[in-house]
C-alpha cells in the first residue's frame, strides 16, 4: 500500500499437465505443471483467503468479453441450425455430436475440421479426445483411432471410437482402414468433405479453372478433386459405405455404424466447399522452442 492506493502485480500463468509444453512458443511468466482442475480449485481458495473477488460486468474488460462471447454464440448457433444443402461444418458437427454414443473417444484432424470441431464436437469424458493439437500435424488420425480402438477392445469393449477427418487429412493415411478391417476394429470414420484444404471448389468451378491450361499450373494446391467418393473404399473389403448430403442422412448413417461391432465404417459427408467459419484471431503455433 502506498499513498492510500493498492498496486497489484498481475502475472499470466501457463498451466499444463505436460511439462514439455511449458514455455513452448513463448516464455511463460509463471509456468505451472498441473492438471487444470486442481490448479483452478487451489487458485480459487487462495483468492478467497486474500479476499480478492472478481465482479463480472463491472468493468470494460468484462463487458467486452461478454459481448464477444455473445457474438460468437450467435454465429455458431445460426450456422449449426442451418440445414441448407450443401451443409456447413457447424451443422454437421451438431448432428454428429447428437447421435454418437456419449462416452465415445473422439479422434479429430484436419484444417477447419479440427479447428471448428474442437468447439462443437466435444468429448464427455477426460482423455477421450485425440487430435493433432496446436501443431496441425496431418495424417495422425487413423493411427490414433486404431490405438484407441485396440485399447477399447481390451478394456472398454462397449466404448466407440469416432474418427472425424477432413478430406485432405484422410488422404494422408486413409489406407489404415485395411488395418482396421484386419483387426476387426469398429472405428466410425466420418469424413467432412469440402473438396479442399480450408476450402475447395464445386465441380463446375473446378472444371472451369482446369480449362485455363496446364492443370498443374492452374489448379490451386489447396483444391482437391470434387466430391471424391471415399465411402467406396469399403467396397474393397466387400462392404458398403455411407454418402451423406443432409442432416437426416447423417443421422441414419451414424445409427447404422454404431450397430457394427466387428469392422470399421466410413461416412462421407459432402459439404459446401466454401463453408463459412468464425474468423480465427490467433494463428496456429508455427514455431516450437522444444
UniProtKB/TrEMBL annotation:
KW rRNA processing (keyword) present: no
A GO biological-process term: fatty acid alpha-oxidation
The protein's name in its UniProt record: 2-hydroxyacyl-CoA lyase
UniProt-listed Enzyme Commission number(s): 4.1.2.63
Domain named Thiamine pyrophosphate enzyme TPP-binding: residues: 113-269
Reactions that this protein is recorded to catalyse: a 2-hydroxy-3-methyl fatty acyl-CoA = a 2-methyl-branched fatty aldehyde + formyl-CoA; an (R)-2-hydroxy-long-chain-fatty acyl-CoA = a long-chain fatty aldehyde + formyl-CoA
Cited InterPro entries: HACL1-like, TPP_enzyme_TPP-bd
Cofactor: thiamine diphosphate
Leading EC class: lyase
GO CC term, one of those recorded: peroxisome
Protein origin, superkingdom: Eukaryota
Alphabetical UniProt keywords: Lyase, Magnesium, Metal-binding
Annotated GO MF terms: 2-hydroxyacyl-CoA lyase activity; metal ion binding; thiamine pyrophosphate binding
PANTHER family in the cross-refs: 2-HYDROXYACYL-COA LYASE, 2-HYDROXYACYL-COA LYASE 1
